[in-house]
Amino acid sequence: xxxxxxxxAVVTNPKPVKREVDDASIDxxxxxxxxxxxxxxxxxxxxxxxxxxxQASDQLAINPAYCTSDFxxxxxxxxxxxxxxxxxxxxxxxxHAALLKNMVFRRPFSHMIFPNFFTANQAxxxxxxxxxxxxxQAIHKDLFQLSxxxxxxxxxxxxxxxxxxxxxxHDWVSAITGVPLSDEVDVRGAMYRYTDRLMCHDDKLTTRxxxxxxxxxxxxxxxxxxxxxxxxxxxxxxxxxMVPGEIVKRIxxxxxxxxxxxxxxxxxxxxxxxxxxxxxxxxxxxxxHSPQSAAAIVEYQTMPASGSMxxxxxxxxxxxxxxxxxxxxxxxEIWKAKCRETFLKQQRLNIPEILxxxxxxxxxxxxxxxxxxxxxxxxxxxxxxxxYRYFDLRQRFVKDFKCLDLxxxxxxxxxxxxxxxxxxxxxxGSIISGPPDQSKKPEENAKENKPFATAVPGSSSxxxxxxxxxxTWFLRTVQFRLERFAHQDYTLKNYDAVQQGAVLDLFLxxxxxxxxxxxxxxxxxxxxxxxDDCLPLTKFSPVSNTLQMVRREDSVxxxxxxxxxxxxxxxxxxxxxxxxxxxxxxxxxxxxSTSGSEHDVDSDEDESAEDDDDDExxxxxxxxxxxxxxxxxxxxxxxxxx
Length: 642
Hints:
Helix content is 22%, strand content 23%. The chain is of the alpha+beta class. Helix 3 (69-82) packs across helix 4.
């Protein structure tokens, strides 16, 4: 299913995802001769006031070469042949051979490219100028970032242009495709500028039948490396659902060309990110509709399977590398009380410098050097989940990763989990005594909760009065991943962030020192049950060596904003990492230490006391403070952005 409201598509799921336009609108500046030759906005406004577009649109006509009955019949017969399994295209006639080479294509799905579509160059230029004079709205969601006009059929200056699309072009499209069309035609202007993009989708929505893009970009010097291409994906069937594969064709935006394709389950496409700050892509886009709605296809997304991980008692190594794994003293109690006060007000908290600096630096060096040894996975369906790499830490693959292994062990200690529970006032209700029953729901396991202080091997203070020295304790997690994000990576609203019941999300970020807000990678929380999700519930950008805690209800999901070209330039193509842990979030029982503050907050925020015990088992590489290679320094090219 597809994912955008007007520009390109929307996914329909058990919880529908709506794509709206942001309230903020912008006046789109025109381009000078040095920016692909578009006229200035001031001249465009003069043209608008003189009403020349209404007159010029009257002169727009389809290229006569495309209007002959022989041409239309040849295109229509080819499209029918494409729909035939094992069709022999080599046996087609000479008139078909030319079309197959230049205009009509079968792979990866049926699509057509018609250059020099309209005649009368002066009229085309006037349409372009009038389009530039319109007010564009900047829209930025999980699936796209671009600027778009309102529906042009309601704009008087485009009355004749829209009439041409609704009559001559409409009938011509129906003739060459052999598809009956209704009178409904969508007409909008779209502008893509530096870092704008539209991610992979299929356009399947309501009665859409034939998608079209008419380019007004002056693209004589446009290179595929500039971005802005219409990328077409091949497809494969996974669990009876069509999913996108790899990009097999890139179509650059060529002025006065018309691209058409039939909207189908496998019509996966995207508009690649504009990576040249000097280029912009202008087009008129929309759909021709079918008289009848296609059969509704609902893609159900299964809830992520929860897993159980054994947790242990914190030792000196754990306490040395992480402030939350240290035993409480007066200072740490005051600090936790202040943190709890903030979290209870905002349901979110960030803790900077969570890891010892020397350990953090060694960990980042380890990830950089051994990234290729991690068996990364990618989502099976980028149309539903996005594109990024991850590894499930519940598999406990940490061989030859000394720092990562110690970090995972530290997170799964009683003291770390107790500190999180103290700060969030959330009872980690998914702690169960082993072996865990994977068939049980988190709320069912709440009956088996033990306080962290007693839920550790060797504890003799079990509330039940029984000796728990032989008991193994497990933490049921919804997700526990190491995730990798590089340029062009992103996640969508309805990826693996769905869950049953409230959860507590923990994020720990690595190697993202130059990841500013304009680079993408921001984590955005939205409410799927809210009819108006224009404004996020909360959002935050990754900060190195910082722990983010967010309580999330079952109707709330998050997405990771597209990591754009700015990050590729600033980090020299290097990825950044985040560790994501999601556990069930049940309220603390009344009277427990996590149900409210037991300490007076009467001093400034302090970190927990330093542990002076010697580290007998782990080398923090304190003599190698410069083990992390320096980030790429800024350059004049780095500042060249629209």
